[in-house]
Amino acid sequence: MTATTRPARRWQRVDGVVLLDKPAGMTSNAALQAVRRLYAAAKGGHTGTLDPLATGLLPLCFGEATKFSADLLDAPKTYEANVLFGISTSTGDAEGEVLARRCVEFSQPELERALASFRGPIRQIPPMYSALKRNGRPLYELARQGVTVERAARTVTIHSLELLAFSGQRCKVRVVCSKGTYIRVLVEDIGKMLACGAHLTALRRTAVGDLTLNAAVPLSVLDSGGETVRRQALLPVDTLLQNLIPVSLDAPTAQRFLHGNPVTLSETKLRNALRGNDHYEKCRVYYHDTQLLGIGALDFNGQLKPVRLLAAEQKFS
């Protein structure tokens, strides 16, 4: 081997979830690839993009966990956002060029009233500086070339919008929102309502569904902490599925379910699973409460249909 030749990386099967506290200045994909290399994981993905400016919770999925990453895409997201009023930028955040400066003359009660008007379903026009594509090209590429194209407004939901701090031109808010919400656009629209403009100066994601930043690990800790730290940070595949009701199967039923066949639950198990509901329920399915098989859809007649399954090489005894 010559001095310039590096040994080929040996990728391995890694199954699990890492809750990463993403640093600022890094794309979500770059963060994913950095963690993937640390684990030498053959397959990986993330559960929703964070802008490079943003920090905070980025759930990363490896191996079999990637089958369930889509289930978090629709989960509500929680952010803490720092806002500067009186200055509008080309990107809606601190990385853009200043477009306009205006006086800030509103009071805290006026700000509170403005925030109240954005709670619930709202319409947003996606920003040009976004990863949405037009004719196969990301909008941010067009924006960098000075090209602006029309974007259709779409409905998102602001479940909660809370003022955490306010001082002069600056405030901090906590936002709980639906999939597809652009916090930069929300901040810009609040600034427009207050007739002074605004942009985002910092953004931190603190929760994705039931997953919170409290359990997240910074990239620097994963990088420097060694195998023990990385092993502890790799959480079970069903970490992504804690919002789903659990159903446990015995060996013969588990075998049938894992091979893609619907199974019928006993009346007792059905009653426990549906918890008084009379409609189809998604659930996480186990063999003997501990061995995850996948996701199933359960109807009121007790039929459990496979929706998404783990690899069928598991053993039952």
UniProtKB/TrEMBL annotation:
Keyword RNA-binding recorded: no
tRNA pseudouridine synthase II TruB subfamily 1 C-terminal domain residues: 247-310
Catalytic activity: uridine(55) in tRNA = pseudouridine(55) in tRNA
Residue stretches making up the Pseudouridine synthase II N-terminal domain: 36-183
Entry annotated with the keyword Transmembrane: no
Entry-linked CDD domains: PseudoU_synth_EcTruB
NCBIfam families according to UniProt: TruB (TIGR00431)
Family as reported in the entry's similarity comment: Belongs to the pseudouridine synthase TruB family. Type 1 subfamily.
This protein's name: tRNA pseudouridine synthase B
Organism name: Dentiradicibacter hellwigii
Protein's gene: truB
